Amino acid sequence: MKITEIFKSIEGETSYVGLPCAFIRITGCNLRCSYCDTTYAYEGGREMSISSILEEVRGFKTKLVCITGGEPLINKETPLLAEALLNERYTVLVETNGSCDISVLPKAAIKIMDLKCPDSNASPLMHWQNIAYLTPLDEVKFVLSSRKDYEWAKAIIQQHCLSEIARVLIGTASGAIPPKTVVQWLLEDNLNVRFQLQIHKYIWEPHARGV
User: Are 92 and 108 in contact (CB under 8 A)?
Assistant: First the structure.
């Protein structure tokens, strides 16, 4: 597998925010979202075997692992990596951009799945069949850049009853829209979702790597 970086930090978003976490960032992505903050993961990286990845992760002394990218599911070895981590009793999060089939992942892996809003320029590429594979352990994430994105996300949440299927997260693209504005919309509409900030961007510089 081509790996951009492996590091230990705190989980910066999701329902696991603030917890110590080992991150495995897999190289390569099939999308080019307008707000992408990990463009450095598009190419490059180092070839690593699953056993060498596991050895490096063991040294971090944490049982929470996040497989991310790029887009990890364009690598056919990712489900095998997730299975290997689960076999060692890690809690495994897999962050995926919503365009790839999540059914290839082990059922015990926790899917953190984006549904890309219109301003991302990737919305038409979503794999909508994924909604049928979600479980109450999984999380669906919307990243907003505008009121248009918010209205789109709200309609999708209601149309698919997403809050009854999985945990729903709403956040903002960095610098695109004030978080307090989105929070006000959520309170006015009484949406059953979790608002989230990417806290690692407040602790460290917004474009810092390895955090």
Answer: yes
Question: Residue 151: which of 201, 120, 117 has the closest Cα?
Answer: 117
Between residues 97 and 176, the one the model is more confident about: 97
Among the listed residues 36, 149, 26, 42, the one whose alpha carbon sits nearest the alpha carbon of residue 80: 26
Which segments of the chain are extended strands (E)? 2-10, 20-26, 46-47, 64-68, 91-96, 110-114, 139-144, 167-172, 194-195
In tens, the pLDDT along 90-112 reads: 999 999 999 999 999 999 999 99
Residue 143 corresponds to which tokens in the numbers above? 């990243």
**Which percentage of the chain shows pLDDT scores above 70?**
100
Tell which residue, 90, 94, 86, 119, has the closest CA to residue 26.
Answer: 94
- Axis crossing angle, helix 78-87 with helix 50-58, rounded to the nearest 10: 40
Q: What is the pLDDT of residues 140-158, one digit of tens each?
A: 999 999 999 999 999 999 9
- Residue pair 45/2 in contact (Cβ under 8 Å)? The answer is yes
